[in-house]
Amino acid sequence: MPRQGQSVETCILAQWHKKKGDLVNKGEIILSYETDKAAFELEAPASGTILEIFYQDGEEVKVLSNIAVIGQPGESVDGFKPGESSLATDSSKKLSESDVIFKTDTGEQIESNNTEYFSEPDQIKISPRARKLADRLNVPLSRVRGTGPDGRIIERDIEIAAATLRTTLLASEVLEQEGKTTGAMPTGPGGRFRAADLITRTTTTNDEFVIKKISNIRRIIAENMHASLHNSAQLTHHLSADARKILEYRKMFKSGQIKEFGENITITDMVCYAVIKALIIKPEINSHFLGDSIKTFHKVHLGIAVDTERGLMVPALKNADEMSLPELSSGLKSLADQCRKGNIDPELLASTSSTFTVSNLGNYGIEMFTPILNIPQSGILGVNTIVYRPSDLGNGDIGFIPVIGLSLTYDHRAIDGAPASVFLKEVKQQIEAFEITIR
Question: Which domain holds residue 121?
């Protein structure tokens, strides 16, 4: 199973296109699989016969694990089989919740099983505050990806992990080895799911309704959204900007009056261009909140929310502040196309890859909404539809003009209401005074 990015640890086998005993040629597509962020296809690394398939459609597999063997008929596959599961069918070898022995960092055995993780190797890089929080929240450090300097685990990483790691060690093994899922109610300590709480994945249907287990991507989205709301202090401000200038530019682009730019520059492109300018002028919100510190960026790596058949994805457009409007437009369209085709680089989908995110629901006619932060980012801007509202046209005349709604959600731990409002006002001014330059 190939590794798709350093942050990807498992993949879901979506569909085998070949079966055991089939002849395959090198380069032929034999498998479709997906990570929690995107879908991919696997080519046969060699020509031959598929001698064995170790995992079936729908199973979750660790990256770099053997999933099948291609060779010549009669060759043995025993040396390629994945390691035997610790959850053996022999009852004498099966684990139970009481079999797990817990130890402190000094090696002393803990009599109570209220702590759900083993002490970790000394080589794990973790800040003292993060280790203390991990001890309090019972977070296994082996399942935490550090985002601090040199991969160091920081307090923020523990907070995010605590919101998503909701199973005991035994339950985690059952989830991985037997393909089960969590039930409706956890009964373990600290609200964790025990092995006895797990159920088999099923699809239930009758004449009145259908119940279908959510996809891996949908599960990750749900956990991330819950973790975002649970682990941050989110507040949203709403403001409208005069859209007459960007609508006029859009009309000129479509008619070919500005030939250097082409005709595909969209309202979203122009709003993102204005946002980038505002982030350069007011950089406080172009940051990550890291618990005990704030990381403010000099560059703008713009995240853009993309709706796909597999779910919402937010890829990062690196160094967007260095791009002209046509370059920005081309980059955003390329990212969206890669997301929908399923060949986006998973590293670009990590929330830490973007410094600020834009989410546009204007095409759906939404007049106002509350976007959810892509933590650890400090801000996200929601772009709404254009509507007509009364305005002072000057000389005492009142008329209706087109305005575009802007909804800024920010982490109040990282930035206060006043500077957040100043940034949103700057976005408004950049839209209303929109100008283009050719670089």
Answer: 97-219
